[in-house]
Design brief:
Layout (H helix, E strand, L loop, with lengths): L23 H4 L14 H12 L10 E7 L3 H8 L4 H7 L4 E8 L12 H18 L3 E5 L4 H8 L5 E10 L9 H8 L23
Antiparallel strand pairs: 1-2, 2-4, 3-4
Length: 209
């Protein structure tokens, strides 16, 4: 975590409560909707996507692709913002960076269908999110975007699937959000107990760790 990290960027009720050995970058990771106008530098962006590139993938294929737009190139930014649904536009317009995750449908080495491609691009995005958290930033993934419009806008080939739209930046003032979003922005984070998600022996039998 950077020395410049502030209480605003890591509100206490957003900290993950879990095992003492959990990495700080995971403990502090969350998905805000309130973003500040603080710019994300080119070097910072390079660090994020370089981290994503080192994620694991089936056959080491790296099927993911990313299409990025930042506010220093406002026409490109507005083009990507226009692919989001209206609800997400209302808050994501404040984030300094937006990007799309895209993944190949087929393996490059034999052109057969890659059933793990979306799994792999998800892992790459998770790696990027943890890297962002370690740098005092946050990323918020969105399913709410027009896939057909994005495909047409960016000439994405049919043999590629679209995954998520993502906002990246530094946490901002939640009171500037539309009123209906402010409550969820401050709500404590919760997770299901491992007994509901970690099994052993047979389905739905909680693992005794």
């Amino acid at each position: 975590m950077n020395d410049s990290t502030t209480a605003l960027e890591y509100p206490a009720n957003k900290l993950a409560i879990g095992h003492a050995r959990m990495l700080d970058a995971i403990r502090h990771r969350w998905s805000p909707r309130a973003y500040s106008d603080r710019a994300v530098t080119s070097d910072d962006l390079t660090a994020l996507f370089d981290a994503a590139s080192w994620s694991a993938s089936c056959f080491g294929e790296e099927p993911w692709r990313f299409i990025v737009a930042s506010k220093d190139k406002i026409e490109e930014y507005q083009k990507m913002l226009g692919c989001l649904v209206e609800f997400n536009q209302s808050w994501a317009k404040n984030a300094p960076v937006l990007f799309l995750t895209v993944t190949s449908k087929n393996f490059a080495h034999n052109n057969k269908p890659n059933g793990y491609a979306m799994h792999d691009v998800g892992m790459a995005l998770a790696t990027l999110m943890i890297q962002a958290s370690s740098m005092g930033m946050h990323a918020h993934a969105m399913g709410g975007f027009d896939r057909d419009k994005a495909r047409s806008t960016y000439n994405i080939p049919e043999d590629y699937d679209l995954g998520a739209a993502v906002a990246v930046g530094y946490v901002g003032d939640h009171t500037l959000l539309p009123e209906g979003m402010q409550k969820t922005e401050l709500a404590p984070r919760k997770r299901k107990p491992l007994s509901e998600t970690l099994f052993s022996g047979t389905w739905a039998n909680p693992a005794a760790l």
